[in-house]
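As a point of orientation, let us examine one representative protein, giving the amino acid sequence and backbone structure tokens.
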Amino acid sequence: MTERRSTSWWFGLFILLLVWGCASTGARTDRSAELLAKSYATMSDAELQTYYFQLNDQIARVERSATGTRVGAGGGSYPVRAGVGGEVPRQTVADELRDRRNEVRTEMSRRGLRP
């Protein structure tokens, strides 16, 4: 019985570490959706300039990333498995960020600010 508890404990710890590792990596590297959701029209001048540089940094991160975001679903058990998957190209995300950066640059110009 003790061996069974020990195995369950290690398995639980493994799952916890796996979930924690995946969650923390995604939060640090992909802020694209968060940045695109912000409304730059209501920002102060200082916030707008900071936002502009955050967009620049995120574009660089996305472009350095070698692979896109993988999306998939699947199921089954051995020996039969089925799944569908695809990849959202990083270039699409970078293009959206560039478009937003251009909009912010236009707003900064309208306000008389320099990037």
Summary: The chain has two domains: 1-29, 31-66+85-115. The radius of gyration is 21 Å. Confidence is low (pLDDT under 50) at residues 24-28.
